[in-house]
Amino acid sequence: MTEAGHLRVPQWQTGQLAPVAAAREDVEGPVLTGDARRLAERTIAKYPVRRSALVPLLYLVQSEVGWVPRQGMREVAEILGLTTAEVEAVATFYTMLKLHPCGKYVVSICTNPSCALLGGRALYERAKEILGEQCEHITPDGMFTLEEEECLAACDKAPVLAVNYLFYDRVSQELLERMIEGIRAGHVPEAARGGVPGELKDVSRTLAGMGSQTPPQPDTVPAGEGEGGGAPGG
Amino acid sequence: MAEFEPVLTARWGNPDAASIDGYLETGGYQGLRKALDMEPDAVIEEVKASGLRGRGGAGFPTGTKWSFIPQNTGKPVYVTVNADESEPGTFNNRELLERDPHQLLEGAIICAYAVRCHTLFVYCRGEFVWPGTVLERAVAEAYDRGYLGEDIQGSGFDLDVMVHRGAGAYICGEETALLESLEGYRGQPRLRPPFPAVEGLYKSPTVINNVETLSCVPHVMDRGASWFASIGTEKSTGPGIFSISGKVERPGNYEAPMGTPARELIEMAGGIRGGKRLKAWTPGGSSTPYLTPEHLDTPMDFDSVQAAGSLLGTKAMIVLDETDCVVDATLRFTQFYAHESCGKCTPCREGTWWMERVLRRMEAGHGRTEDIDLMHDVGQNMLFKSFCALADGAVSPIDSSIKYFRDEYEEHVRLGRCPLKDEGRPRLEAASPRSGGTTGETAQELPEGRELSLGEVLA
Ligand SMILES: Cc1cc2nc3c(=O)[nH]c(=O)nc-3n(C[C@H](O)[C@H](O)[C@H](O)COP(=O)(O)O)c2cc1C
Ligand code: SF4
Ligand code: FES
Question: N or C: which end of chain A has fewer CB within 10 A?
């Protein structure tokens, strides 16, 4: 199954899935207020059918909280007229929606073969050593979450490391060490493309579609059409 | 080969080409102009005549796909660009988005015009934060200059484009899973039929095309179907971008005519790293069976690669040299599939999980000879017995590695360890030099991403 972030472990090494946290953390609501609420409505209006805005709205929650707590899912469910279970079913499917508190910087290291052949796994191991035991969840200083990543579609630049999904090419262990030191000291280096990565909250805002300046008009789907379109096997 | 002029990557050396001014100065949007002067059906005919086949993996004829779209059903028609590129080893869509976003957009607009669609979605892989942003900027520019929105270039044709970001799931590249995801559900494939052409997004007729496929379309319209068909082979026409990675001197995207022999492509990438010998390679990403040095003269077109026992897939060549362990690489691919299986069908969900365990045992040196046949058996119970092609793709590396490298599995069992694990080897090889780019006479050095230096990182 495509696991949520909190289940990610270096599978190539252990193959064991980490146990799901027994008591799920949550936050006190509401999380989508004022501006965020208006942005949510604007996002929904971009789609022909409201439900399409589900993942963008979860990204919006993540941009407010830094992760996606159940409280956020409840609010999104209410906005879209869904049950919390329906929202949770979707939230748990996608690895970029973080279901537990995450560091400000999610460090992803690709260990798929093209990167592995050039040292991707060793890089991952080194990162784990530097960041410590809890880093696949969140480091004690709240700065980092380390994730083992599947192919990032930049295999020519192996081994690839990403900070909040902006990529760094051909990262050596030495460079990795310096990067982590630098970020800890408040100096986030510029990525190979796309500038200096912001915090996970900022990136989540971009992913929610807030970078787009082109809200198209709602389409002319006949009323009711498509609402049931998700039934598998439809 | 010598006279091949890059088509899809022609602007890659020009950093201005990502902006609409740079694009227009280099002949951009000419194909769209021609298309808008034609009847939509004539555009479909032109694309059919070009022989263009989908670059997303299956090689379905693009014009034919467009012609399946029924008109006047009372429902809107949708076009969805598949920019979810996540097949291990595949990385040309990312570079097409970063370096020439308007080329894709122009192709997508032409497609929308041909099938009479007024709302187009780009499903952009979540991890593509930057490529997606480049595309969003291009979309905004296109609106600004009247290439999107109402009455495009005075033609009376209206089109809105929206970039939708994915959230990290390989399966969402599968077209019906993509539609589920775009509708706000878990990205799990749908049963077909009905095919998306009849009941796709919101149960409306929908075209889904890959980024590279659509990037070909402006050139088909601008220079004509017969020009396009004159490149490549009879049944795999046009240019293609080959992603070459792993143990080659200069990994990168290389554009060449479809049907270029694998050997030439690997030479373009500088040959095998450090003068070592080639051991195995994939022609089309992790889902396509491995081939060996024997197959190097295979022309890289859909039919020839299939005749050689593999698939052209996404034209992604992952290269292993003599020091790389095939069992280990296969294990890593299998872990990918076990992680990315959407869990909907039992053979795929359970099969990938068990295969991973058996392979890990093998690689760790605790394998048994029977495990080899066991894996083959499990594969047979997955192959063509699952909902979508992910399961078939998962079987590819396993079956083909057993076929060609059975002795390596046996060696693992006999020695009780990986014969190639060498503790003395450096844990991280030196980074590869800069990547490739375009080929042919006009081969160009591409502007690279920022290379980070050690000194600047330290606070
Ligand atoms: C598991 C799986 C993953 C896929 N991922 C992608 C992808 O990331 N990008 C893509 O264009 N096609 C992908 N495809 C193929 C699509 O289903 C579809 O065939 C393609 O987008 C059609 O576009 P084309 O006709 O232009 O090739 C995938 C297929 C499968 C089975
Ligand atoms: S074959 Fe695998 S990925 Fe495809 S639908 Fe079945 S479980 Fe999901
Ligand atoms: S294998 Fe690491 S980016 Fe593709």
Answer: C
